[in-house]
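Hi C.,

You asked whether I'd gotten around to modeling the 133-residue construct. I have! Everything is below, sequence then structure, no commentary in between.
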Amino acid sequence: MRFAAGLAVALLLAGCALEPARNANLPVVGVAFQWTAADRCSPRSPALTIQNLPPGTARVAVRLTDLNMPMFNQGGEIFVPPGGRVPPGTLPNYAGPCPPAGERHSFRFTVEARDAAGQVIGAGQATQLFPPE
């Protein structure tokens, strides 16, 4: 009985780690992207537009999560060029959306602006279904 209760707590806490911490004091970073049918199972990331990066942003952590299968996360930290446009194919450790044939999954890009010390100073997210209609 104790083992089952401990397992339930561990699973609950593990699920909490799948979503970024929400801090109402952090500035909201704008995130936009668009899927195409060619993005299916592709190692080439789509273009991202990132807006409203707070002053002091040194790099941006980007993560793609399949909300239907949240254990599959992709992404990495990148330098976002001035203007906030991340060209296609530039996200490290990226694996594109690859839901089973005939299924549509919700995918979320999460962006965290980080200062030179690696502290999160802003965050944002955008979610879309894949494949697109």
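If it helps when you're writing up: The radius of gyration is 16 Å.

Thanks,
B.
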